[in-house]
């Protein structure tokens, strides 16, 4: 049975490792839309957040603008963790640059994308088995 976790110790270390994730958003019909993404945990502010870079107008962005409830999951063998939260779609250059910087630290420098936006997810719950 999944247990609620906090983003510290081994659980936070798992989110610092380089793993691809899945982002789940809700489609207009309520069906889940699940896509692979790179996600980065941010504990620098008052509340925990996650960042995802994507493009304006793609389905995950459209879904998050309509219904901000999202889940980000990563799996490595028997270890897994899911972050639940609410997403904001940000297109201002400072927010996009921050998301790109964080993405580059965990993964690699992202390719140029003039349509890039950032999803900033306020994390409300963490579950997993790490």
Textual characterization of the structure:
It is a single chain. The protein is α+β, with helices and mostly antiparallel strands and 130 residues long. It has one domain (3-129): Pnp Oxidase, Chain A, CATH 2.30.110.10. 23% of the residues lie in helices and 45% in strands. The chain has helices spanning 9-16, 59-66, 93-106; strands spanning 3-4, 21-26, 32-37, 40-42, 49-55, 69-76, 79-90, 116-129. Strands 1, 2, 3, 4, 5, 6, 7 and 8 form an eight-stranded antiparallel beta sheet that branches. The radius of gyration is 14 Å and the shape is globular. It starts with a strand and ends with a strand.
Q: Strands, helices and their partners?
A:
Elements: E1 3-4, H1 9-16, E2 21-26, E3 32-37, E4 40-42, E5 49-55, H2 59-66, E6 69-76, E7 79-90, H3 93-106, E8 116-129
Largest sheet: 8 strands, antiparallel
User: Helicity level, as a percent range?
Assistant: 10-25%
Instruction: Name the beta content range.
Output: 35-45%
> N- to C-terminal separation?
13 Å
SS elements, strand count: 8
Q: Total helix count? A: 3
Low-confidence stretches: none
Radius of gyration, in Å, reads 14 Å
User: CATH-wise, what's the superfamily?
Assistant: Electron Transport, Fmn-binding Protein, Chain A
The CATH topology label is Pnp Oxidase, Chain A
CATH class: Mainly Beta
